[in-house]
Amino acid sequence: MKNNDPYKEVIAVSIVEDDRDIRDSLAMIINGTPGFVCEHVYGDCESGIKGIPEQGADVVLMDINLPGKSGIEGVKKLKAGNPDIDFIMLTINDDEETIFEALCAGATGYLTKETAPQVILHSIREVYNGGSPMSANIARKVVTSFKTIDENPLTERETEILRHLCDGSNYTQIAEALFVSKNTVASHIKNIYRKLQVNSRGEVVRKAIKERLV
Q: What is the CA radius of gyration of the chain?
């Protein structure tokens, strides 16, 4: 079990990356830097899921777009059985939905592949010591997303109805659950669509999940 000793001499890093050039380059940088060692690399998520628990690691650099299972799926599965391992997503994906999916799956850090080698090394040390390193543009997106969440335009009743919509309830079921008429439910849903600038149930559910409105 990892003891998170900030003065630990060597941090063991594993890499899950399908691009051999990137994988080999990262391993070379890590192994060429005092205080770090990379003994295990994996070219796909399935290999990582199998090998990482057996071989062990303090920190894992995980790509997202991998053949077969995605890196996000890998983090979710590995984190469930190995809570002491920290995961840093190292990827080209920088859209808000992917970022939050990765963080919700259990990733602690999120860096883009343009990140300089020294910053990656610093981030590995930082995440090992309890931090949550992110590339500057990723951090801005996270802050913006949380600001959007804090500025939820819906009333308490509208949020309650939105939650029922996300659960798959129809107008009649929502009306019965809230002891109101179907016309009242329809009126609230119309206001929800207007405030969230959507035009369909599918759109409103996707936006609710993405912006964590429910």
A: 21
